[in-house]
Write a structure and sequence with these properties.
By secondary structure, the chain is α+β, with helices and mostly antiparallel strands. The protein is built from six helices and twelve strands. It is globular and about 55 Å long.
Amino acid sequence: MSIDTLVELARDRAVEHGPFGARTTYRVGGTARLVLEIDSPVLLSEWSESIRNCELPVVVLGNGSNVLVADEEFAGIVVLLGRGFETLSWRDDGDDVVVDVGAAMDLPVVARRLSENAVASFEWAVGVPGTIGGAAFMNAGGHGSDMAHCVSSVATWSLERARVETWTLSDLAYGYRRSSLGPLDVVTAVELTLRHGSSELSRASLREIVRWR
């Protein structure tokens, strides 16, 4: 299958020779052969075979923090996850709070919303300018904590095997800024295990982190 078939399938959600470097926090670098925005898990499932059949390298891009793009065009597909992946909910589980987060949610937004609702131990993320998906992929962290201290499981869509897969914390094999996830494992959602706290103390912690940053 050619890339033209994927472009025809995705229509206005596909941009050939689209901006790549401009979508990172550095705002420098070239274009990509195809930039593809996927708005929902359903579309990800429907388009995955076409993406795989293009036989091009794939990069899943969140906010592009700490991503440096070369000036020449990237001869592959850049996948962007849209609004259907911006979800956030939580529930009590005894002494813990289980938080379900869509991969496209910004870390600072999640940290602030949880803080407002007295969910603690994710304040460190207010200073990290990435998305939950990218953070789970590379074990982002700061201010004495990281994703390895918070994640209980990660949901992915495997472009290679065309199926939903769930990775436990042990499956992820987190190390310093790395995990066992591969380039064809698209993080779609993350489950965090956090704790009950105080909104007042949590907001104070957020302010201190933002001041330090």
